[in-house]
Amino acid sequence: MTGLTRRAALIGAMIAPTGRLAFGREPAPQPVPLPPPGPADLRSAAHTQGRFFGAAVQDGHLRGDFQFREAVLAQCDSLTPELALKWAAAHPAQDRFDFAAMDEIAAFARTNGKRVHGHTLLWHRSVPDWALAALAAKNWEPIHRYFGAAIPRYQDLIDYWDVVNEPLEIAGEADGLRRSPFFAAFGPDYIRRALHAARSLAPEAKLLINDYGLEHADAEGRARRRALLALIDGLRRQGAPLDGVGLQAHLDLARGVLDQTSLAAFLHELASRGLTVLVTELDVREADTARPLAERDEAVADAARAFLEVALDQPAVKGITTWGLSDRYSWLNAEGEGSAMRPGRNRGLPLDVGVQPKPFFHAALAALQKPPFFGNSPGGPLPGPSAGEGYGL
Ligand code: G3I
Fold it and tell me: How far is CA 261 from the centre of its chain?
């Protein structure tokens, strides 16, 4: 409840049906106008659009930080394990699984009626060392064992799996596919094979490819979009069980203002292939952290707003997840990955370091409170399925 709503409710409770204050002789004041109706938390707002809201979390932060935990409970339907379910974390030795951290997140989700987003099965940056030699020998067995242990364990909680994370790499080969240890061992067919393997263990879950760099329409972004659509079309021709795409949406202020028209066209291309789309890792990397805080926060909120306006205008988009919830814990707080964290160094999440709402939060809330009005994307009506080339894809 906002401060204004709470005040209005209190005053309302104090006013007797006669219109006079219940405990005094003064005439009743004019009722305080109520703010426009609409839920004041992100998850309830998302529900009004038939969507969900989630955030990436770490088990230690849920365990040790009461304020953060309460915010997650209030704002999120869905929890993405930021680290705990990655292969290297959960299967550190050939003969040893370690699901302790993931089990803790799962227990938290079960206790509190939350869902879990399955992040992630195959990611080139999370292959355990012990598995590298086996993969190099073209042995699928390590993947089979990991899928077999991880997928059934959380089947009651996971509706969506990032089966393959970040398969694209446009700087390299013409096909736009990353030369990962999986690609090196099995060629591009590893993606189809992984989807089938996941489907056999999770018949009900939606299976996704999750990737980054698809939101901006610069040369790299357009090349990544084309590579993803080509990959999807190839998989569909082969009958692979691909249900959707995760757009990571790590927005970057250094890459300039988002081109909403071309983003809408790209989302339409995905939707027209019958795919579910999730926004899986939304946050905003700042370009200039020397500016006054208020300006920084407005710039971050503007980018999030521009992105969400388009994403939420596409009915195929079923949920929004931010990569963290508060600037207290964000991968963008490290100077470089693996270096020390400085909470609030980057202010790219909905809540600030004090776990309080800031302009990003209000922009997301307003976008999620709007009644769905699909087809009203900025730039006019959505293009037809064949219009992709004309929209910079
Ligand atoms: O826990 C250790 C800590 O003890 C140590 O002091 C510190 C400094 O070396 O490192 C800490 O571990 C780091 C961990 O994050 C916890 O913050 C790891 O080095 C670091 O590699 C790890 O990075 C994570 C990265 O994925 C790799 O797993 C990030 O937190 C996480 O946000 C990031 O998430 C990825 C998504 O999975 C895929 N999309 C991109 C996204 C951002 O890179």
Answer: 21
